[in-house]
């Protein structure tokens, strides 16, 4: 049956209408699916960080003039981690070395005098030898610190020691008394007063680095997951080094866990049940020093074996204070504080300043690495949405990085505390920009996924329209060829 001319025209009109709607809708579809990409601020080229170490060398004798400059020159020539300087304006951060003449060389740390070291040198030495003595003393005191700082240039970690936890804005410190059995447990302990005397002064001295939240708990029944080995010769129950990682019964013990941006640190006083006492730690058949061990990036455990005639339900304060000193030492190791200097308290200004400088390097390095990663991620994902908020946070992070660098490397603007505060803000803004919700949602959305989205949408539409268009074009060409052939015959 032949199709009339009117039906053909109507069919072609309908087809053209569909194609017209489709083609006219393409610009609208393109505009509505186009992702907005806010321009990111340009990143500067950061030079390797060499912070200032503010120092003041005071000489007892006028005849020692020139020793200070010689000592500083030697210090800066034998190491490239710090720039030792006597020209800083920040008196509160400056360490003073008082050089005195005496019978023999000696060093004295005066914690009562803020940031003061007294160095006595033999009176028979010349200026160069005295300058060498000053430089060697400071080199020795900063040895561990400089090693840590050198490692932080390679990695954003504050320490090469894998026991040390990375920086976190907040730390949750949970002190737990775990009773190994339900028979004769300790029901109470004077933890608040002991923490106020041992832990809280240290936390107050390092509060510029992180916020520390302290909690405590008593568990009346905390079983081990294994039976300690019993030695008949000594009557002791033994923990071997291989057993220490299994002491923590994470499945049943209610310990501190990660929450938001806070990292947990657990400090456990473990009281074995009576049938496991005394519980000791041994290595190679010999008792280890003490009854405590540190768990890297987790916390520490102190084992307490009460006397056989113990009847009190409250732990003795003096005993708890002794164990808390061990926990305090472990805490300082976990956060990366340098080893203790003999004669100085655990929270001495020297150790605190060294800890601040190490964390400052870690924070600046972390902020710089995060900021450098943002443009790389955006360039790798062309269809990633970059909101104005992320670009603004990145700009704020750059501002704080620049301020931290200024307070770290400029003699006239040196301020360790201000640099730390700016570095913390830089890390916070950089991570907020990198982990922006609208950006992270497309972080793992490859280009190939688009085909899976658009094929079910456009396939059923374009296939019949395309086939119909081809059929109409073919019909049009056939009809035109027939018409021309007919006209040619009429002419003949």
From TrEMBL:
Q: Which Pfam families match?
A: PIG-S (PF10510)
Specify the pathway.
Glycolipid biosynthesis; glycosylphosphatidylinositol-anchor biosynthesis
- Span-the-membrane segments of this chain are 12-31
- State the membrane topology: Multi-pass membrane protein
Q: Which GO terms describe its cellular component?
A: GPI-anchor transamidase complex
Q: Which InterPro entries match?
A: PtdIno-glycan_biosynth_class_S
Annotated localization: Endoplasmic reticulum membrane
Keywords per UniProt: Endoplasmic reticulum, Glycoprotein, GPI-anchor biosynthesis, Membrane, Transmembrane, Transmembrane helix
Please give the biological process terms from Gene Ontology that the record holds: attachment of GPI anchor to protein; GPI anchor biosynthetic process
Which family does the record claim for this protein?
Belongs to the PIGS family.
Q: What is this protein called?
A: Phosphatidylinositol-glycan biosynthesis class S protein
């Amino acid at each position: 049956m032949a199709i009339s001319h009117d039906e053909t025209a109507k069919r072609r009109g309908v087809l053209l209408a569909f194609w017209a709607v489709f083609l006219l809708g393409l610009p609208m579809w393109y505009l509505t699916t186009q992702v907005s990409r806010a321009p990111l601020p340009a990143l500067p080229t950061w030079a390797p960080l060499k912070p200032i170490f503010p120092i003041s060398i005071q000489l007892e004798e006028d005849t020692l003039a020139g020793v200070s400059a010689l000592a500083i020159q030697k210090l800066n020539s034998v190491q490239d981690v710090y720039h030792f300087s006597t020209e800083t304006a920040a008196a509160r951060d400056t360490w003073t070395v008082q050089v005195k003449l005496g019978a023999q060389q000696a060093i004295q740390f005066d914690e009562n005098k803020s940031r003061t070291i007294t160095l006595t040198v033999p009176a028979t030495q010349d200026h160069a030898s005295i300058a060498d003595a000053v430089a060697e003393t400071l080199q020795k005191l900063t040895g561990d610190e400089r090693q840590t700082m050198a490692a932080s240039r390679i990695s954003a970690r504050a320490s090469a020691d894998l026991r040390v936890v990375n920086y976190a804005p907040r730390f949750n410190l949970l002190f737990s008394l775990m009773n190994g059995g339900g028979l004769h447990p300790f029901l109470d302990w004077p933890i608040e007063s002991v923490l106020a005397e041992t832990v809280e002064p240290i936390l107050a001295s390092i509060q510029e680095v992180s916020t520390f939240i302290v909690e405590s708990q008593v568990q009346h029944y905390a079983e081990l997951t294994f039976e300690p080995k019993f030695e008949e010769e000594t009557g002791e129950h033994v923990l071997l080094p291989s057993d220490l990682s299994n002491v923590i019964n994470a499945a049943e013990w209610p310990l501190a866990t990660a929450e938001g941006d806070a990292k947990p640190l657990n400090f456990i006083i473990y009281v074995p049940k009576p049938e496991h006492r005394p519980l000791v730690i041994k290595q190679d058949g010999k008792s280890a020093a003490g009854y405590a061990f540190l768990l890297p990036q987790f916390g520490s455990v102190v084992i307490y074996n009460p006397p056989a005639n113990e009847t009190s339900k409250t732990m003795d304060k003096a005993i708890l204070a002794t164990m808390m000193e061990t926990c305090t030492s472990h805490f300082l190791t976990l956060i990366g504080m340098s080893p203790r200097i003999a004669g100085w308290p655990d929270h001495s200004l020297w150790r605190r300043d060294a800890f601040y400088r190490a964390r400052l390097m870690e924070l600046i390095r972390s902020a710089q690495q995060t900021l450098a990663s943002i443009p790389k991620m955006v360039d790798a994902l062309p269809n990633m949405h970059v909101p104005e908020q992320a670009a603004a946070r990145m700009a704020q992070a750059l501002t704080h990085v620049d301020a931290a660098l200024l307070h770290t490397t400029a003699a006239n603007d040196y301020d360790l505390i201000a640099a730390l505060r700016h570095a913390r803000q830089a890390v916070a803004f950089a991570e907020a920009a990198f982990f922006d919700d609208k950006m992270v949602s497309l972080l793992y959305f490859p280009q190939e996924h688009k085909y899976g989205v658009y094929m079910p949408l456009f396939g059923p539409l374009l296939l019949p329209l395309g086939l119909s268009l081809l059929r109409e074009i073919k019909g049009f060409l056939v009809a035109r060829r027939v018409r021309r052939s007919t006209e040619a015959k009429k002419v003949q």
